[in-house]
Amino acid sequence: MILIVDDDQSVCSILTRFLKKEEYETETVNFGLAGVAAFKEKKPSLVFLDIKLPDISGIEVLRRIKEIERGTPVIMITGNTDADCVLSAFRLGACDCIFKPFDFNYLKGAIKTLIGNRK
């Protein structure tokens, strides 16, 4: 299962449709704290995590997720090109950072690299 944490409904919808087409199960939440709770409960194979969320930052969500389970791959998603924010995510253990709009061929390859065929 892949967890999507993003407050933008259109981004969630686009990623969900793409992932379902690739035969991955998904769970979507729109707030950072809900993302941490869903991570604990669902134990996803991969997380897509927006850097900017309405309640707590994606960087803080990443920190909390990595405290729970260091080995789960997290791909940060953002429309922001703030290098310091992206570097912070990598320092905390993010595997990748993708920018909106998405390159779906890149996404497909990144998912296969990080989790293989675990759906």
Tally the beta strands: 5
Q: What is the assigned CATH homologous superfamily?
A: Response regulator
Return the domain count. Answer: 1
Structural class: alpha/beta
> What is the name of the CATH class?
Alpha Beta
Strand content is 15-25%
Low-confidence stretches: none
Give the overall shape. Answer: globular
- In the sheet with the most strands, the strands line up as 2-1-3-4-5
Mean pLDDT: 92
The CATH topology: Rossmann fold
The total count of helices amounts to 5
**CA-CA gap between termini:** 6 Å
Return the string of H and E elements.
Answer: EHEHEHEHEH
Measured on Cα atoms, how large is the radius of gyration? 13 Å
Largest sheet: 5 strands, parallel
CATH architecture tag: 3-Layer(aba) Sandwich
Question: What would your notes on this structure say?
Answer:
Helix 3 (58-68) links the parallel strand 3 (46-50) and strand 4 (74-78). A five-stranded parallel beta sheet has the order 2-1-3-4-5, with helices on both faces. It contains five helices and five strands; from the N terminus they run E-H-E-H-E-H-E-H-E-H. By secondary structure, it is α/β, with parallel strands linked by helices. It has one domain (2-115): Response regulator (Rossmann fold).
Characteristic terms for this protein:
119 residues; 5 helices; 5 strands; Rossmann fold; globular; alpha/beta; 47% helix; 5-stranded parallel β-sheet; 18% strand
A few lines on this structure:
This protein is an alpha/beta fold. The protein has a single domain (2-115), classed as 3-Layer(aba) Sandwich (Rossmann fold), CATH 3.40.50.2300. It is 47% helix and 18% strand.
